[in-house]
Write a structure and sequence with these properties.
With about 280 residues, the protein is α+β, with helices and mostly antiparallel strands. Helices cover about 35% and strands about 20% of the residues. The chain is elongated. About 25% of the residues are buried.
Length: about 280
């Protein structure tokens, strides 16, 4: 249980300067920081296309409340999950790894330029999720630097320090690398990072072989089972396809060629005996 007074807590977090609260203290702990900072909130929207917004939410409150509420809304309303069973255990898997999404959100909070008046914006699509915040990279830094080990240089060091001391983040500049590794383990594409004069972008892409995407391609049951086979076994031959589904060579060739045309599998460079297909 926390026994320190509010004043001592703020002092220990270095959020008081010359007997006055720092701006970070307002953003972190005030019930309504937008009274003092326009745009100090998070906006979430679901887009059918870039110009077709289906629904949206706004998340207000202090930074701690915004982080927790945003994660809750994203994973209950915007990000789908699939249900599977391992024995008697119910296993729920979302379209994106929670740890990576949380890291992107915390990065946006730590690096946002709160003087510019624009909220953090999260755009959710059928096949991707994009974070945007009004931010600036440190001098002489490039996006490429974020893909390798680099020091921690948050735009808002007082906010980052408080989030670190409360256990929300680390202080080693590993966030961008952790997001990449989380996505690799989750078996979806690595996130893409973009930076221009408008701010900083993080884009996550869903696994194109997820159930929802495959249904949209009008694949038959054999093809769907072949994709599951390839996820576990890496490759399949025409002969294996024939024997697995009890179909003729012509049917197997037609099914496999259709999967190639739709960009789901590719044929090996080997032709004739020894040829195979892989994702």
């Amino acid at each position: 249980m926390l026994t320190d007074s509010d004043d001592l807590l703020l002092e220990n977090l270095q959020l008081i300067e010359n007997a006055f609260l720092k701006r970070a203290a307002i953003l972190l702990f005030h019930s309504d920081p937008e009274k003092f900072f326009t745009g100090a909130y998070i906006k979430i929207g679901f887009f059918q296309s870039d110009d077709e917004l289906k629904f949206q939410d706004e998340v207000h409150g202090n930074i701690f409340e915004q982080v927790e509420k945003t994660m809750d809304i994203l994973f209950t309303k915007y990000i789908h999950s699939s249900i599977n069973y391992e024995g008697l255990n119910r296993v729920e898997k979302y379209d994106y790894p929670k740890d990576a999404i949380r890291e992107a959100l915390l990065n946006a909070v730590c690096h946002k330029d709160y003087a510019e008046g624009a909220p953090i914006q999260i755009s959710v699509y059928q096949d991707k999720l994009i974070f945007w915040n009004d931010a600036q990279l440190p001098d002489n830094w490039t996006v490429e630097k974020l893909l390798t080990k680099h020091p921690s240089k948050p735009y808002n060091p007082d906010i980052a320090n408080t989030l670190f001391r409360s256990g929300y983040i680390e202080a080693w500049g590993r966030g961008t690398i952790k997001m990449i590794n989380d996505c690799i383990r989750f078996e979806i594409p690595s996130p893409k990072y973009f930076y221009d004069m408008s701010g900083f972008w993080v884009e996550f892409r869903k696994d194109k072989l997820n159930e929802e995407s495959l249904k949209a391609l009008n694949l038959n049951d054999r093809q769907l089972m072949a994709i599951e086979f390839l996820k576990n076994n890496k490759r399949i031959t025409n002969r294996e396809y024939q024997s697995s589904f009890n179909v003729s060579r012509n049917t197997a060739t037609r099914d496999l060629s259709d999967l190639v045309e739709k960009g789901i599998i590719k044929a090996s460079d080997i032709r004739g005996a020894g040829s195979f297909y892989e994702l």
